[in-house]
Amino acid sequence: MGLANMDDTGADDVKTALGIDNWRKLSKDHVMQLVAMMPDLDKDVRLAVLKQLPELQKIVGKAMTTVRKVHEATLASNDKSQESDYQGRREARASIIAQLERDDLDAQTRMHLNDLLVQLSDKDAEKDSENKHYLDRWMTKATIGVTAAVVLTGVAIGGKVGFQQGGPLRKL
């Protein structure tokens, strides 16, 4: 159910347009309808609706806290994994270096051990690149989530928000 002139509509009329008689009956589908309506509502009506939805603020706050905790746990786990991986190669490198210090090695064995050291260094570089790619993916996902929250908040409070092609957010 749509509203012809949302600028003159009160918060109760918004409930009616959503087909609910109580804000507690606001479902996920209703939230999507409400977000779609927000740009057409008068700013005072938007604020009145948001004030009647304190649970929405709690849900968003809890979601952001959860995302932060998951992100911190993921980074800590990643750091632990990285350190474990590097520690294993440090130990292998120390063992190879200890063997290279022996005087009784033939040239072929010495060259093979040097090749192993190079391979270990290459593994470190691969692991570092893999980790940077992993962190980049995480940062991208976090940025998308934060951007979505900002856009929804902007729509709810300030009106229509759009993207300029290749540029930042702009108010329509």
Radius of gyration: 28 Å
Beta-strand residue percentage: under 5%
| DSSP helical segment count | 5
What is the strand arrangement across the widest sheet? 1-2
**Which class best fits the helix and strand makeup?**
mainly alpha
* Range of helix content: over 70%
Q: What distance lies between the first and last C-alpha atoms, to the nearest angstrom?
A: 24 Å
What is the count of β-strands? 2
Largest sheet: 2 strands, antiparallel
Low-confidence stretches: 1-8, 159-172
Chain-averaged pLDDT: 76
Overall morphology = rod-shaped
Secondary-structure element pattern, one letter each: HHHHHEE
Which short descriptors sum up this protein?
5 helices; 172 residues; two-stranded antiparallel sheet; disordered C terminus; 3% strand; 2 strands; mainly alpha
